[in-house]
Structure formats: C-alpha cells, structure tokens
Amino acid sequence: MKQFAITLTTIILFIFCMNSCKKEMSYETGNGANGNSGGTITDSLGNCQLIIVKGTYKVDTLFTDSNYLLVQLNITSRGHYKVSTDSSNGFWFIDSGYALNTGLQTVKVKGYGKPLLPIVTTKTVSYDSSFCQINIDCGALPIITNDDYFPTTIGSNWTYYVGTSLTNNFTTTVSNLYAIIGTNAYSIFTTPYPSYNDTSFYRKDGNGNYYQFVTLLDTSTGPIDYPFLKDYKNVGDYWESDTVRGISYGQYVTVKYGFTIIAKNQPYTFNGIPYTNVIKVKEEYFEKSMFTASFSTSLDYDYAYYAKGKGWIATEFPSSPTYNMTIKSLPVIK
User: Fold this and answer.
1) Which residue range is the domain that position 313 belongs to?
2) How many domains does the chain have?
3) Is the pTM higher than 0.85?
4) How does pLDDT run across 13-64, given as a tens digit for each residue?
5) What contacts 60, CB < 8 A, 6 or more positions away?
C-alpha cells in the first residue's frame, strides 16, 4: 500500500507540473488561436492607423529591399502576427513576426512583384480580422517639382514675347490635369489663343531628363516622346530624338532632332531681366528623303535657354529672328 501511495503521489505531482508548464507556454505564445497575436490595424474609434509607403514604384520594375510598408498595429495579445495585402496590379506586401509586447507597434512589411500598369493602385492591408486601404502611385502621376530646369508645379505660368517688336505675347500655364500616354505620365501645359487652346505634354524622370510628347511633322505617323533637355550633360555633349517618318513638301521623309549643350551655369539677360544658372541648348532639325541613305546636314537650328528654378526662358532663331520667343517678365512659379 505504501508503495502504491508513493506511485500515486508521483503521478499526481507529474500531472500538476505538466499543467503548470502548459499554462506557462500558453502565456508565452499569446492568447490567440494557435499562438497568434490579437489586435487591430485601426484605433479604438475604427480609424485606420498610420501606414507609410516606402520606395519607388515603376511599371515593369521588380521590387527591391527599398519597397516596403511601415504599418502601425495595436497589439492586444502577444504571439505570432502576419500582415499582408492583396496582389492587384502585379505586386503585394506580406511579412510576419512575433509580438512580445502589447500596445502600439510599427512593423515593416516587405513588398514583392512589380507594377504592371501605370495607375494609382489601391491596396487592402490586413491584420488579424481588421483591414485598411492605401493608394500607391505606380507612375500614374507626373513628377511635379519647381526647383529644376523645367518647373511643373500646378498653376506656374510664363508669359513670352514673340518676335523682335515685343508687342505680341502669349502665356502658358501648368494645368491641374495630367495625361497618361503609354506608360508615361505627363504634366499638361495650356496656352489659350483667340480661336483655340494649345495643349502641350511634358514629363521628367527625376534624373535630369526632360521630355516632350509631340508630333515632329504634322503629316507623320504620330507623336513621339523625346528628351529636349538633359541637365547633367556637359558642354559639347550631344544626343538625338527618335526618328519619325512623314511627308514634307509632298515627299516622304524621315526626320529627327539633335541637341547639343552650348553653355551651362551661365548668366543671361532677356528683356532686362537677368537669369543665372542657365543652360543653352542648340536644337537642330535633320531630314532625309526615301531616296537617300543618310541624313543631310542640319537644315535649321535654334537656341533654347533654360534657367534653374525658372524653366524655359527663351528660344532664338538665328535665321528667323521674327520667330524668337523671349520671356516677358519673371515667371510665376508655384
């Protein structure tokens, strides 16, 4: 009997210890099912908490370690957590970890994939049983800046004189609209005239390249996107636009533009207004007919001037001064 009592006592103590350990393990892994943490991605009023989008999002560009979300969670019970999004437009975010403490915590959620379309993509961010939505610009909005050589901030405007008599003038303004053409986003510049409104499309890539989407020939197959300025180039550097086919004076021709940096970081004065940090660009027009193998020498050229923080301030036509365009007064940069 004594031996039986000792054995029974041992068994009872073993079971008690197991239950004690089991409770301790449960405490360590949180109160959620299967050791998962509990909480929300919203505050006590149901409002979404802070979510910060990091990285650059461009069409057909795979994500790197710089593409991630910083998500603020309200942890109510400790344990494993997982934060994820849907996979719309070819990319998604997902990450997991272990919450040791309750309360507000910011977690890093990695991004995967690559954007397929240049659109503003809405992502649903989920944690536990709560969710919030964020919008990520994948190239749908143009780069808008006012401190480079071609400001594109909405409402900025420039007034120019045309010709040498300084009587005719026109004003161009950055519209509050933008255009998506192909996979590129353009700022829209509008210039009202008595009988119509002229619309121009410009974009920049943030790396010193400035582009215009325009038709080189009215009879060409269509407009092209070409860089009219590269602010990082040195004096003497040259680049060209793509070629375009069209009809000129009744003949099928192929045309292109060539650009050369003539001066950089120089002062110029137009209509009594001095400008500093100006880049002067020679713009040349080249053409070849369907019967020739190579382009002719430059058929015409002009000089365009761009001032940092001011934009395009003048274009001079040496062979036709009556077409000169010079800025009338200081531009209004928003």
Assistant:
1) 157-327
2) 2
3) no
4) 444 444 444 333 333 344 544 689 999 999 888 899 989 999 999 889 999 9
5) 114, 115, 116, 183
